[in-house]
Amino acid sequence: MKKVMRVGIVGAGIGGVALAKALQQRGIEAHLFERAAKFGEIGAGVQMTPNAAKVIEALGGGAALRRIGFLPQAMVGRNWNDARELFHTPLREVCPQRFGADFWHVHRADLHALLCEGLPPGQVRFNVSCTGVTQDGDQAVAHFSDGTRFEADLIVGADGIHSAVRDAIWGKTESKFTGHMCWRALVPVEQHPLPFVSPDASFWMGPKAHIVTYYVKGGAAVNIVAVNESPDWVAESWTEPSTREELLAAFDGWHENIIELFQRTDRQQIFKWGLFDRDPMDRWSQGQVTLLGDAAHPMLPFLSQGAAMAIEDAYVLAAALAHFDGDLALALPAYEAERRPRTARVQLEARERGRTYHIANAQEQRERDLAFQQAQAKDPNAVGIKAEWVYEYDATRCEQRFDSAAVTA
Ligand code: FAD
User: Fold this and answer.
1) For 305-359, how does the pLDDT look when each residue is reduced to its tens digit (9 = 90+)?
2) Would you say the CB of residue 10 lies under 6 angstroms from ligand 1?
3) 100 burial via Cβ count (<10 Å: 0-12, 13-18, 19+)
4) 294 lines ligand 1 (CB under 6 A)
5) Cα(71)–Cα(58) distance, rounded to whole angstroms?
6) pLDDT tens digits, one per residue of 77-88
7) Chain centroid offset of residue 92 CA
8) Cβ(304) – ligand 1 distance below 6 Å
9) pTM above 0.90, yes or no
10) What is the phi/psi pair of residue 119, to 5°?
11) Using CA positions, which residue lies closest to atom 9 of ligand 1?
């Protein structure tokens, strides 16, 4: 590289630490600034689909992913009150050949720890909340609530859906409540296995609601994501506590397996969110500042891609900085050209999946279920949630695309 780059990353969530790791791999200096006092056991399960697993492998986390992850057999669509199978997509046998990597279930805290492995101690400054970003010549400056500032060649806003960095460069706009409420809960099963919970990614679809269940922590716990439509607004955070009773009341009448699972939830591990999103942005970068992850493209979790997109962004941004020798005038447009169309499509299609999963009209449900059957009759490996295009993508090949884009231009 012609120039040693110093990068300041605001937010040390999944995207921030993935970027620090990707930059470290490329020999670029990175400093993380995190509002929280420490990393903790926050969050619940996340699906790390093959597109994300390819990046984790390239970042050197493959062995750790195999250690902490759970490999589901299949993705299974089920009807909400009679458990009838709506689709069945083999994953374990098919994903490596078809998409070039496995489909994993992990606990978010385990994934975060995996991405932090090998980062030098002291690389993260905790308890600092970014209040704004300014630009001074060829330097960007992040300002923090404790009065400190940090100058760098590039500041990256990896500070989530309510990004202060995005507000600083593009002006403050509110994210939109989508009308979806979401519960996340864990059921410990090591001591008391639940034979009725199959080792699959199970998508239960009902009127104006859906539930996804899958094993995490190597099979020691079942993760629940339960979504329904509700006009009530709830704070968007990882830690709004809820209760077993509230969860059971919201899904009254669902199949007995769901009810039994809910009755076994760990009372300390039930949280709720209001789900917010934004429209895709036209640009992410301005001068020496750019965005990544939820700060750039918050999305509904219905394709299970928010963390996966943040990890892909991180890899591509680091690759672009290295590829263009730290020249931001080339690297940031290349980063956006690679990432914005894809993340915009995921944002918009995730919204659409919410509609498909939640169909309430009986005739429309029959049409949807018939479409599932027809797709599987044509191709027994067809992904029930139509995500082949998501899983096929390989961020680790982005440098080839930078070259071909330069040739075309
Ligand atoms: P975050 O993880 O939100 O991290 C942002 C960080 O910035 C936080 O640590 C925060 O404390 C810090 N921060 C915020 N503001 C400031 C500030 N001003 N100064 C300093 N620090 C700041 N994704 C998947 O890939 N697969 C799934 O299966 C999946 N399931 C999901 C299920 C649900 C119900 C939900 C809600 C989300 C799900 N996601 C999933 C999405 C995923 O969790 C997020 O998209 C992902 O965590 C985004 O990562 P991020 O690093 O961009 O933001």
Assistant:
1) 999 999 999 999 999 999 999 999 999 999 999 999 999 999 999 999 989 999 9
2) yes
3) middle
4) yes
5) 19
6) 999 999 999 999
7) 21
8) yes
9) yes
10) -75, 135
11) 13
